[in-house]
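Dear Dr. H.,

I hope your travels went smoothly. While you were away I took the liberty of generating a structure for the chain from your last submission, since the lab meeting agenda had it listed for discussion. I wanted you to have the full record in hand beforehand rather than looking at slides cold. The sequence, exactly as received, is reproduced here:
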Amino acid sequence: MIPLAEPLEGLPALARHYKQLGDDVIRTVRQTPHTLSLPATADARRDGLADNRLYVVRGGTLAACCQGRRLLLWDEGDVIIPDHGVSFQADSAVLLAGYDFADLLGEIVATPDLARRWSELLLVQQALLTRCLAAQMPEDGHTGSRFAYFHPGDVILRQGDRADGVYNLFEGEADVLVDEVVVGRVGQGEVLGAIAVLTGAPRGATVRARSRCSAMHIPSDGFHHLIRAKPSLIHGLMTDMARQITELNAQVVAMSSPHTPGSPGPS
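The corresponding predicted structure, in token form, is as follows:
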């Protein structure tokens, strides 16, 4: 395994240990591998890489990519465990040995010593990927960020408060209120409070949890850094803002429309 960022201390030794563990497991299993020869490709799945197989690199290198960004290279001897969230590219021909993943796991769990080695391999892989992630992160990337949980009824952001950052909502739903009137709703994946951070104005609305919510709080300076490092984030923010404005306009129209004849007026 070859990281594409500056390697951290101890990573080469972990990579060697990962290869050794992978070799120990693969040499023990009875399954006959399927040989796959990949050409240079920008999409290995299109050229035959199957999601239901575990692969061992027998020659060349295969780049692992996430969200269009290359993270590392799997090289000769590396075990590649199926991961639907990762894409693969090759700059030149690659030779792979493929094993049916379900059958392989069945054989592994039936053999205690093999299961122990497999568990160790997974732990070493996690350690490798954690170090690769650390090498990719800028030193000041998310300084001061913290994770927060909110229960139904908890206020996440309060109208009129000074904007000290944004919340990236990982799970849950929340109501958006202006002057204590619900004007919209936000959900998983949305960034809360960005307008106030970008404009420097006080919070324009209150956001109150409808369900249990978890969110990452990113301070204002960290949010500005994130936008500079990942301009594509702006597109998502604009989409969320446009949706919220559309919903608010629809609600205003509904509230201002006259009652139809015969319908009861406001009590």
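Two observations you may find useful: Confidence is low (pLDDT under 50) at residues 260-267. Residues 5 and 135 are 6 Å apart (CA to CA).

With kind regards,
E. W.
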